[in-house]
Amino acid sequence: MALLTVDRVSKSFAGNRVLHEVSFDVRAGEVLALVGENGAGKSTVLSLITGMQAPDAGELRLDGEPLRAWSPLRARAAGISSVHQELSLNPHQTVAENVFLGQWPARRGLVLGRDLARRARPLLERVGLDVDPRTRAGRLSLGQQQLVELAKALVCAPRLLILDEATSALDDDQVQAVFRVVRELRAAGSSVVTVSHRMAELFAISDRLTVLKDGAVMATRDRAGTDHDDIVRLMIGRELSDLFPAKAAPTKAATAPALRARGLTVPGGCAGVDLELTPGRILGLGGLQGQGQRAVLRALFGLARHGGEIELAGRPAKLSSPREAIRARIAYVPEDRKVEGLHVAQSVRANLALTNLDTVAPARRLTTVDRNAEAGLVADLIDRMRIKAASPSQEARRLSGGNQQKVALARWLPSEPRVLLLAEPTRGIDVGTKREIYHLLRRLADDGVAVLVTSGDTMELVGLCDEVAVMYEGAVVERLAGGDLTEERLVRASVNPAVTHA
Amino acid sequence: MPDALAGRLRGNLDVVGLGALIVVLLAAYSHYDSTLFTPASITILSAQFLPLILAAMGQSAVMLTGGIDLSLGSVLALAMAVFAVTADHGVPLAAVCALAVAAATGAVNGTLVAFAGLPPIIVTLAASFLWGGVTLIVLPQPGGSVPSGLVKAYNDGWNGVALPLVVVVAVLVVWKLVKTTRFGLSLYAVGGNEHGAYASGVKTRTVKISAYALAGVFVGLAGIGLAVQTGSGDATIGAPYTLNSIAASVLAGVSFFGGVGQMRAAVLAALVIGLLTNLLLFTGLSPFYQLILQGVVLIVAITVKTFATRERTE
């Protein structure tokens, strides 16, 4: 008997089709894993179930009854709770206040702190969290906050629990505590839908796996009837080895680094980071989200005030503004391409020309734009990067995410950067374009560019990079290269820096 | 226990800091006015400061949800005008009318912010013109009919009791209760993480509308206070309260992003601004220099405060 049925559901955002006729069901008393790449549509499906979004077409049924006028409030009332990777906690309120967020037990209209703390304690115990319920939530570590989210989801004794990357910041012990809760729920006849990048965890806990790719269901498999390679093949639609280019051969003679940072520190971001970016090599910055990777990139591009020493090609350098960084031939493709990377309301042509005004608007023309030179440059880049735009005058915001990213990257190429910094270069991008970007980055590296990439996608870091520096709370805690660079080692170093150091 | 005490002090850095600032201001003040600590003087001063204190509380209530109210001064004047015009039908009725109007304007602001998804700064800026115009229709010329007995009792004390002081204490007690209700917790939850609150089933729109309406009540009280203090209504008197209330809220440590702030600190901050204004008046400086000094003092105070709290949140 299906507890929840998702029936031919479709959903688009601003013309981008995110889900296309997705169907699957969740049986009572089972653990179903939803797997797929970033941008495959997992989070969107979950947001439909929790009432955060409404489907454009198709319907969802709970106990055979179609869901109408669905909202987070109704979903909760129907016994659906969820834990998301993006924390829904209010850092300024106490742990207990957060556990009961939205459903604070009141006595004669008043919510008493003492009472809240007393009721929160058994829930915190159940998720294996030993903290004072009266601490402010913002003071806890990321992992502890995630467990508070789980405790919060258990308040209403859920019939369906949704875990969306709910273990991303947890260490092994904490993951076991989550597993224990999941098994208890299953034994009591409740169902769990789980999404995780950690494939091993999915195999350890789920009964069935449903694979999504580019917004469509590829297959649903029983756990016993599948394996890791099978699932990955379904996820990316091809063999993994084909997705990533071959890595750089270990250089015999040590190449001088294009950029060397010593003790790079950004207040509130990162502290004492040492990096060497070498021509021909792709270095990755791994770790959990928000451990200072962004600060490192922003500092190296002169966007964040920083301390420490930076050397460019062996010479001490100061990077106190993006202008200086660009002059030093450093290029930056930011995480939020719509804010820092592109002028979305402007044309593809204007976006590509902006970083190359020195070429297309030279001093001898009194810095007016040479339209012929501009047209030539733009046509060449569109061709080289295979940017799919209706015409160079199309607004950047009308492009697909993958093509926007190509424009964000292409605009730097004419200046032939020595150092290329990229944050989450393939987030929200389809597999085909991902593959193109991976191969392009490798070609650039082979041509002598030093590349630095941050990514939350462990598969991407392992597949693409020659070396990965794992960050935790603003510091590099581990460096993995060669045979040590595996998804398992990377995940462990990300959440358990103390153990790997010991 | 010293640890516990130190922890408490650190937790209430805003209140402690503002308290210290007030002590300094009072010391300087008593230098110019030796009758400062007499009951009569306290009554007069609290009558003078009440409107700003209540306005700051209204502004803080909105800012706690992550919003801002630029129409505060206009609504204050509107409540003042409504009270002054209807006062000859009986003070209680007039007070109810003024508060109802002020709460309704707040609810309209809140509805536009919550449902139309418009930025609070735009909505309330537009609303400030709207309510300003309405006020002029209600009361084209300064005037009205506030009973002189009430004016005297308010400004000179009623049987030796400073009425404005009673109002402030009462409002703070009410706020303390509101803060412990589900609504109060929702208010802080929406301000601290709106998306998270929504995903947890909090009716974020209702909370926002209620917050703006509650702010309307505070501002309505401020308007009534001002009408009683001056003995009449004046459509043009409200304007400075908008920016002063924002200055007081910021000085009190209420975050522009919502979710952080204490009402008692807002009360103290309004007191600081009021005392500072009076004190500068005493110095006999030209009004131009008074404005410059007031601006400099506020900037310094807010800068110091920001650095102090930044340390705290490491």
Structural summary, described in words:
The complex is a heterodimer of chains A (502) and B (314). With 502 residues, chain A is an alpha/beta fold. Chain A folds into 3 domains: 2-239, P-loop containing nucleotide triphosphate hydrolases (Rossmann fold), CATH 3.40.50.300; 240-329 and 416-502, P-loop containing nucleotide triphosphate hydrolases (Rossmann fold, 3-Layer(aba) Sandwich); 341-415, no CATH class. Chain A is built from 20 helices and 20 strands. Chain A has a 6-stranded mixed sheet with strand order 6-7-8-3-9-10, sandwiched between helices. Chain A has a 6-stranded mixed sheet with strand order 16-17-18-13-19-20, sandwiched between helices. In chain A, helix 4 crosses helix 5 (142-154) and helix 13 (348-354) packs across helix 15 (371-385). Chain A is globular and about 75 Å long. The mean pLDDT of chain A is 89. Chain B has a single domain, classed as ABC transporter involved in vitamin B12 uptake, BtuC (Orthogonal Bundle), CATH 1.10.3470. Helix content of chain B is 78%, strand content 0%. Chain B is built from 14 helices and no strands. Chain B has helices spanning 2-11, 13-32, 39-64, 72-86, 91-115, 120-138, 148-156, 163-180, 182-192, 194-199, 204-230, 239-251, 263-282, 287-312. The longest helix of chain B has 27 residues, at 204-230. The chains are: A alpha/beta (502), B mainly alpha (314). The A-B interface holds A 50, 52, 72-73, 75-77, 82, 84, 86-93, 97, 101-104, 106, 109-112, 152 and B 177, 180-182, 184-186, 188-189, 192-193, 195-203, 259-260.
Describe the secondary-structure layout.
The complex is a heterodimer of chains A (502) and B (314).
Chain A: E1 2-13, E2 16-27, E3 31-35, H1 42-49, E4 57-62, E5 65-66, H2 72-77, E6 80-83, H3 95-99, H4 113-126, H5 142-154, E7 160-164, H6 172-187, E8 191-195, H7 199-205, E9 208-213, E10 216-222, H8 228-236, H9 240-243, E11 259-266, E12 270-277, E13 282-286, H10 293-300, E14 307-312, E15 315-317, H11 322-327, E16 330-333, H12 337-341, H13 348-354, H14 357-360, H15 371-385, H16 401-410, E17 419-423, H17 431-446, E18 450-454, H18 458-464, E19 467-472, E20 475-481, H19 487-495, H20 497-501
Parallel strand pairs in A: 3-8, 3-9, 6-7, 7-8, 13-18, 13-19, 16-17, 17-18
Antiparallel strand pairs in A: 1-2, 1-4, 4-5, 9-10, 11-12, 11-14, 14-15, 19-20
Helix pairs in contact in A: 4-5, 13-15
Chain B: H1 2-11, H2 13-32, H3 39-64, H4 72-86, H5 91-115, H6 120-138, H7 148-156, H8 163-180, H9 182-192, H10 194-199, H11 204-230, H12 239-251, H13 263-282, H14 287-312
